[in-house]
Amino acid sequence: PKKDVLGALVREARATTKHAFAASLSAKIRARLGLSESDIRDVTYDQHPAKCAGALLLFNVESTLASHDATERYPFDAHKRERWSLEHIHAQGDLGYRKEAQWRTWLVEHAQALRGLHRTEPDAAVDSTLAAEIAEALPSLTQARFDDLSRRALARFEAADDRATLHGLANLALLPGGINAALSNAAFAVKRRILLEKDRQGAYIPICTRRAFLKYYTPAEDQHLQFWSAADRESYLETMVETLGSYLQPAAEEDR
């Protein structure tokens, strides 16, 4: 039981030095996480959801502790009250929508995002034409029409090199279940807009999730606000590996 674990930790803290307790606690976290550096790069949402969730939670906790604001603490009380989900930063290929209301909401949001890209020609013309097609299709949508338009819309928000595995940690972030549902398998540009609005409204967005959508991890010269690129994924994952470094198992201890 959780209460017994907490009690044991309190007794251990009282019975030993601060340094020894910190070392013991780190060892317990390392064992509980059960990941090596190669595991961090290989685990996937579809095969290792608990491992992914544990890594992302620890990433957020450690990032909060390392914040320049010495008064900031990870809100474990808020975390306990929430139902947490793993969100794909870049949308999955199959949206899974079967209702007209879902099609309409998704297409309206993405048509708005397409108009906001402000790209140079010929991309601007393609974006504008697709947004107009979406507007024309809204009065009489069918599943086939939605599938075609959504596929083409998502492609407009992809980088040319954006073909990596969707389910790895480089494409995952931690979010409260309610906010996750509100993102509705949207393209990155739409998710970013919704998250910023939720943040302005006072919703709790974990620090690493907020930073990912604000392109905090990506060098300025590699930033493209309309999609989650290979450069974004690489910078995000490398920061995760660096942050969790002391909790990762050496190669000899990998769980094979």
What report would you give on this structure?
- The protein has 256 residues and is mainly α.
- The protein contains twelve helices and two strands.
- The protein has helices at 2-15, 18-33, 37-42, 49-65, 76-81, 100-115, 123-137, 143-156, 177-183, 188-200, 207-213, 230-243; strands at 84-88, 172-176.
- A two-stranded antiparallel sheet has the order 1-2.
- The chain is elongated, with a radius of gyration of 21 Å.
Describe how the helices and strands are arranged.
Blueprint: H1 2-15, H2 18-33, H3 37-42, H4 49-65, H5 76-81, E1 84-88, H6 100-115, H7 123-137, H8 143-156, E2 172-176, H9 177-183, H10 188-200, H11 207-213, H12 230-243
Antiparallel strand pairs: 1-2
Helix pairs in contact: 6-7, 6-8, 7-8
The SS-based structural class is mainly alpha
Number of strands: 2
Mean pLDDT: 85
Sequence stretches where pLDDT stays below 50 over 5 or more residues: 160-164
Helix content: 55-70%
**Beta-strand percentage?**
under 5%
Quick one: biggest sheet? 2 strands, antiparallel
Number of helices: 12
Quick structural summary:
Helix content is 57%, strand content 4%. It is mainly alpha-helical and 256 residues long.
